[in-house]
Amino acid sequence: MQIGITGATGQLGKLVVEQLKGKVSAENIVALVRTPEKAKVPGVETRPFDYNNADELPKQLIGIDKLLLISANEIGQRERQHKNVIQAAKKAGVKWIVYTSLLHADTTTINLAGEHLATEKELKESGIDYTILRNGWYTENYTASIGGAIAGGAFKGSAGAGKISSAARIDYAEAAAVVLSGDNFKGKVFELAGDIAYTLDDLAAEISKQTGKDLPYRNLPQEEYAKILESFNIPKSFAQAIAGWDISASKGDLFDDSGELSKLIGRPTTSLAASVKLAL
User: 0.90 exceeded by the pTM?
Assistant: First the structure.
């Protein structure tokens, strides 16, 4: 039973491979990566895999029974890229695709949802068995900003008092490994998020507690926050997108209290305190 992991050198993909190695034999895992030289995982086969290269994809999927399709990182190109992979999987005889989508993709105001929903539709119409993992926000999306926040004397954002049910990347990776190593998840859609929701005010308080520094949360209008992000050499369009995601968070789009993620992995999700400690 060969299991293929797309984007296996990415931040999520490499964690999935490691988690999967604890559940199945390494020789049953295939790392599908854009640059094979970068993927050196002992005992794991590596194959070149570029979402854009539709003609080459089917032969790289030969012999793979289960495929984890980790959503691509090129916003605006993902619907086409994911369609390439799904069509290639069909030609290659892949029996089951697990896809990493977005939390509440069918109701959220987050502008990433459109491409995810298009991929979900493509999957459902493909005739291949599927499982959809609608991943919530990674806690790392916020903890990555801790250094800059400390340097600037405040944690800045536009999420207001919106509750964020994020989880650590490792939690989502473990969930993917559980699904890929099992057989009882076909046709299911999982809404995956952290057990304990927090606001950015709570996050700032936790950073303050662990560093001994007084670090307040400063809520800003979307445009002002985007301009601050631009000042850190973030491209204008991406800065606008990040600020927009915070606005969606303020509306509750990153909140979920279903507990599906912790049920799937059989343990509580990584706490905010633990994620902050690791980032520091």
Answer: yes
